[in-house]
Specification:
Layout (H helix, E strand, L loop, with lengths): L1 H19 L2 E7 L10 E6 L5 E2 L3 E7 L4 E7 L4 E2 L4 E5 L10 E2 L15 E7 L4 E8 L23 E5 L2 E6 L2 E5 L9 H4 E5 L30 E3 L6 E5 L8 E7 L4 E7 L5 E5 L6 E9 L2 E9 L2
Parallel strand pairs: 7-8
Antiparallel strand pairs: 1-2, 1-13, 2-7, 3-6, 4-5, 4-9, 9-10, 11-12, 13-14, 15-16, 16-19, 17-18, 17-20, 20-21
Length: 303
């Protein structure tokens, strides 16, 4: 009896060791305010040997019919042990992005679930080596155990409110393994809602995620402002609704809180034109700080 128990324990530990080594889906951010232009999937080499990414294919699965809606070939790149690889919808929105789909998916590339799944397929064997289902449980092999429940999925938007007036939304949450590569064969245990860390070690922090710049500090709207046309193809007129502005600055901030452009108001007037044509399609916020007051305006760039 003791011998059988020891053999069983050895087999179990061996199985866990194999499962703990190799390429895994480590972090996902699939939902942002309005246009999903900052989505990403992070892969992680949890093993002790280098991994050739082109040996695998990433599948995005619609769990209503258990059929992939997108098949993504990975590049011929070697990922060292403990290394991260980030796939995103376009550069400029996601930190440490290694492979982008800006020309293919300009408004996001990952479905929002209820439920859906992401899976890793080994090309040589056609075996699923890892999978995560979210906003519910997907049928095998498109998930591990129970899926990430809706209550822990990537659906939270942090938004400041001042005097009952909502400020610009700040989306800094995703779902991730903690610690990196942790795998118990149950998505509801392995993944949790947390602050996003694309291309870096995951965290278990799930509040006060912060932001690199502008959107962390709420703007009290004391100045009327309009921006048009909205959506814009790039040329945007900012109208201060008759207020004469002599001095000020307008920052253009993306959905992650990064200031991507800044314009100094050097000539007095009630409005002026800015050019955003060099930015990628998506949602931005204009943060105006002037001698006549401050304001925040949401704009959509759609070229």
């Amino acid at each position: 009896m003791k011998k059988h128990y020891i053999l069983f324990l050895f087999a179990l530990l061996a199985g866990l060791t194999v499962k703990a080594q190799g390429l895994v889906i480590n972090e996902v951010d699939y939902d942002q305010p309005a246009v999903d232009s900052a989505e990403f999937i992070e892969l992680y080499n949890s093993g002790t040997s280098p991994v050739t990414l082109s040996d695998y294919t990433l599948l995005l699965v619609n769990c209503n019919n258990n059929t992939p809606y997108a098949t993504i070939a990975l590049p011929a790149q070697t990922l060292a042990p403990g290394g991260f690889f980030v796939l995103c919808a376009g550069f400029g929105y996601v930190a440490n992005c290694n492979q982008n789909f800006a020309h293919t998916y300009q408004s996001g590339f990952i479905q929002n679930g209820s439920p859906d799944a992401i899976a890793l397929l080994e090309n040589a064997t056609q075996n699923y080596i890892d999978a995560i289902s979210y906003e519910g449980t997907c049928a095998p092999p498109n998930g591990s155990g129970n899926g990430v429940p809706l209550a822990e999925s990537d659906t939270v938007i942090a938004q400041d409110t001042i005097n009952g007036i909502p400020q610009a939304p700040l989306k800094t949450y995703g779902i991730s393994r903690y610690p990196d590569g942790a795998d118990s064969n149950d998505d509801s245990t392995d993944f949790r809602r947390a602050c996003i860390t694309p291309g870096a070690a995951n965290t278990n922090q799930n509040s006060n995620c912060g932001s690199p710049t502008g959107l962390n500090t709420p703007v009290r709207s004391t100045l009327g402002v309009s921006a048009y046309p909205n959506p814009s193809r790039g040329n945007l007129f900012i109208d201060f609704r008759g207020r004469q502005i002599s001095n000020g600055n307008v920052s253009v901030i993306d959905v992650l809180g990064n200031e991507v452009k800044s314009f100094r108001l050097r000539q007095a007037g009630t409005g002026f034109t800015i050019e955003l044509g060099d930015l990628q399609n998506g949602v931005y916020f204009l943060k105006a700080v002037t001698d006549q007051g401050t304001a925040m305006q949401r704009v959509v760039l759609k070229k």
